[in-house]
Amino acid sequence: MEGNDRALTVVREIGGSEDMGVTLLEKRSDPHTGDTETHLTNLEQSEPDAALFQVPADDTTKDQ
């Protein structure tokens, strides 16, 4: 890179749960964009409410 005599280093740390298949924590340090941290909180490992998957009673289907 022009005007830079040192290497630019991007560091990325990731921590996750193999059981759930999700990333729980990600930290990134980048000289271009700065430092960022993303973390997943309030995670419940339980079955979702079945009502979330029910078709509304007033729903209709049209064949076209």
Describe the structure.
- The chain is mostly beta strands and 64 residues long.
- Helix content is 0%, strand content 34%.
- The chain has a domain at 9-40.
- The chain is built from no helices and 3 strands.
- The protein is elongated, with a radius of gyration of 22 Å.
- What strand order characterises the main sheet? 1-2-3
How many E strands?
Answer: 3
Ranges where pLDDT stays below 50 over 5 or more residues in a row are: none
Rg value: 22 Å
Q: What is the overall shape?
A: elongated
Keywords:
3 strands; 3-stranded antiparallel sheet; mainly beta; 64 residues
List the helices and strands and how they pair.
Layout: E1 11-17, E2 22-30, E3 34-39
